[in-house]
Design a protein that fits this description.
The protein is mostly helical. The protein has a domain at 31-59. The protein has two helices and no strands. Helix 1 (10-22) crosses helix 2 (27-57).
Amino acid sequence: MKTIRMTLDDDLITKVDIAAKKIHFSRSAFVRKALREALHRMSISMLAQKHKAGYAVFPVSKKEFSVWEAEQAWGSIIHPCID
């Protein structure tokens, strides 16, 4: 693990400190978790963009998923409040 220097607004540091204290994290642990989550969201977003671009180049055909329609089994739905 490396120690780094960052420049943050005073109000942001205050908010981070308050949030970190509520969940019993250090400021560093809170920032590490936030950065990991931001990178994960960015990765998902980039994959979604690639997926969308792929379907723009190769659109879904009308029969692409129809082969699976017969395989769908929804079963009976029982409402928990109804006997």
